[in-house]
Every structure is written in C-alpha cells, then in structure tokens.
Fold:
Amino acid sequence: MEVKLEIQLPISGTNSSISYYDSMINDINFFFFIIDTVLIVDYIPYHAKKSLELIDGMITEEEIEKNPVDLMNNTPGKNIKQLRKHSQEFIEMIFSRLIDNFQIYIVSLVRETLRVKPEILHNNQPTISIAQLLKGESLDTLILEVIESKISTLANKGFGNIEEWCITNGIPLTVKDDYRKLVVEFIAIRNIIIHNRCIVDEKYIRATPDCDFRLGSLRKLTVDDLYKAINILNEIVIQTDTHAVSKYHLEINTIDEKSYSTFL
Structure:
C-alpha cells in the first residue's frame, strides 16, 4: 500500500520543536527539489525535439508526453534513470538526517524541561566537582552545568534508554505502543546507514528481530519507508511537545506555515 506524505504543523511549539520542523522541512524541500530538477532537465530537450517533429509532421500531438511526470512514467530520460539507479543512496541521505533530527529534538526538549524544572535531577544524584564549587560560580551557573552534563550523557544513549529515563523522570516522551517498534527500527536503519553502508548487521537483527532482511544483505529503502518515518516521527514530536508544554509550561512560539514550503 502506497504511503502518502502527511505533514500538518501545530500552531505553536517549543524552541526544540520549531528547530525540528525547520530541519525536516528543509530536508523534504531538498528531496523534492532534486526530483523536480531531474524531471525538468529530462523534459525540456524532449519537448523541444518532439515539438520540431510535430511541426515537420513526423508525429501527432497525441504522441507527445504532456508533462514531465508522464515522461517519467512512460519514457523516462537518462537523468531520471540515473536518479533511480542511485535512489538507495539518495533516500539514505535524507532518512539518516531525519532520524538525527528526531533524536536531537528529544535531547533538546529534555534540556528545555530541565532548565524550567531542574529538580527533576534530584533523584539522579547529579554531582558537582570541588573544582566547580571553588570557582565561586552562581547557583544558576552550577545548575546549568549539571543539566548539560546530564544532556551529554543522554545524547550518547540509545532511544530505549532515553525513553526509559524520560518516563521515569516525568518527561512526556509520547510514543504510541504500535509506533515504538517502528521508531526502534528507524534508528537501527540510521545506524547501519552511518556505520555499515546500510548493510544489515547483528545489531540491526537484534533491534528488529522480525525484519525480513538477512544478515549481510542491503537494507533497501523506498520512498514509502521515508514517508512513513516522516509521518510517524512528526506525530510523536507534536504529541510530545504538546504534553511537555502543558505539564511544564515551557516557552512556546507561534509557527507560521507560510514561511515553509507550499507543499504543506
């Protein structure tokens, strides 16, 4: 079943979510820009040639593809063939950026929350070194250093550990049960893209035991895979952001959809 790209932005969000949306939209715009450019580059010389043939009576108007999409579907040019040949690498690039953007959002939201509610760290036994105390820094400065230390630690952990920490400490990372396996899979895909040229390794098998890909095989990616990840992660960000703002009264800013691409 074909997956449709469904992006609906909220009317407002935290600084973390707005940065996430900015990056996501930029990546999607780039994705479409490359595809549109390739289609047009193929269609312009094709249409010019066919127009001359039409004038010379060599073909009828019905024989001419009416637009770049029809040409792509019926008689693809050399550039669209080349893009199709390298579609795996192209999708890998956008996919890995999407997952990185999502994980950065989570860590950034935790930072925003801890700055508003630093006592969340009370049960995590944060430590302040003697050197920090001897600096004579203000309490606010010391708190910020402890927060950044915790953020640095979280940033190096896997999604499961981050989600567990958020749940334990009351930060509403909102992932539906039927999405959790998919998010783990998305992150596992990102990891083999970055570390193993998207070749399935043992870590990927352990993270996604029900997958259909064999050890050592290429984890092929399609546009449907990309769209599914975009839709699901965007929904998680919206729900998480909404709950975090409601619970901790985080600072929010208005989101102006007009500043984004017209595809929204």
Q: What stands out?
A: Residues 12-259 form one domain.
